[in-house]
Amino acid sequence: MSFDSILGQDKTVRRLRALVETGRVPPAMIFHGPPGVGKFPAALEFAKAVNCSHAEHVEKKAPPPPPDENDLFAAAAPAPEPEAPAAPARVHSDLSDSCGMCLSCLQAASGAHPDIRVVDTAFQAALLGEDESANLKIDTMREVTRWAQQKPLLSPWKVFIVRDAEALVTQAQNALLKTLEEPPPGTLVVLTVSRKTSLLSTILSRSCLIEFGALPQDAVRRVLEAQGAPAAEAASLAALSSGSLEKAAEAAAFLKRVSALRPGDPARAFKFAAGLPRDSHKAREEVKTLLDMLLARARLAWRAAEGPGKARLTALLRRTLDLRRMADRNVSYLLLLETALLESERAGIKLEDLIRTT
Ligand SMILES: [Zn+2]
């Protein structure tokens, strides 16, 4: 894996490569953009690239143990075999990317690099010996500040990737600020965030902002196919993804649930609502996905319709757009879901139609 694995963010990746190549790495960076567009994988690749030594790592063989001189019965040691001349180590010439074959790259790829730490709620739970919490706490960031003062063990840079930094509570952000104000030499902090307004202005002003946009539909399709999705499914999920892999995964879970419902079952809308995730944030996101799918389906039907059918679909599109806007506010998502399903069935679009791709 290298920067080549980051699809659909060409301009941003060019900028990151230039920073690696020139060695002008800012000590604090914010990777900002919608969820599921590759900010975290790009942060991992960036950490790998700045720490790459560009020379192939060759395992050294351990020498055989010396014979025990007190053992009279020991067989005479065989004459050492002449060693084959070692092949010269390969050198990777692209200084803007990681080589994937040096010791640092191998450790980064295995997730065990001593100088690259991912700070997220799962890491925090292990660190503090607590259940996973939704917030990143001050104790965790104090620990990060303490590590930041230590020298890197193996590589030029000690990298901290704070994943989904909107989870940082204010006190934790203040604790981190100390490191950003006086970064110890060789320390790099990368925050990935989808809502930069959740960060203190003092953090924003001290960090280099790297923007990530929504992914092109084709990039989402290629990633899904690379993950093993059949071509037709990858294409329809990509069409529903709004350029976000996270959204595509939600749509996949959603399609699975819709396809389990019996077509024509009068209670299917109720059954679908009953199967929404328990977590209210996730449930709301799923209702938004459903509304997006309804909109996409209604647009397709509208293009093909004529006469009074077209007028009905125009009204449905307007109404669904209103419901979609309300879904971003604090309106009951169950009410939105029921209204949307009722109105779309009246206009001739059924729940099971949503999983058709044509
Ligand atoms: Zn390397």
What does this structure look like?
The protein is built from 14 helices and five strands. The chain has 358 residues and is an alpha/beta fold. The protein folds into two domains: 177 residues, P-loop containing nucleotide triphosphate hydrolases (Rossmann fold); 95 residues, no CATH class. The longest helix is centred in the C-terminal third of the chain and has 25 residues. Bound molecules: zinc ion. Zinc ion binds next to α3.
The name CATH uses for the topology of the largest domain is Rossmann fold
Helix content: 40-55%
CATH architecture of the largest domain: 3-Layer(aba) Sandwich
User: Could you give me the name of the CATH homologous superfamily of the largest domain?
Assistant: P-loop containing nucleotide triphosphate hydrolases
**Which H/E pattern describes the elements?**
HEHHEHHEHEHEHHHHHHH
- CATH C-level class of the largest domain is Alpha Beta
The strand line-up of the biggest sheet is 2-3-4-1-5
What brief labels describe this structure?
358 residues; alpha/beta; Rossmann fold; 2 domains; 7% strand; elongated; binds zinc ion
Quick gist of this model?
The protein has 358 residues and is of the alpha/beta class. It is 47% helix and 7% strand. The protein has two domains: 3-57 and 90-211, Rossmann fold (3-Layer(aba) Sandwich); 261-355, no CATH class.
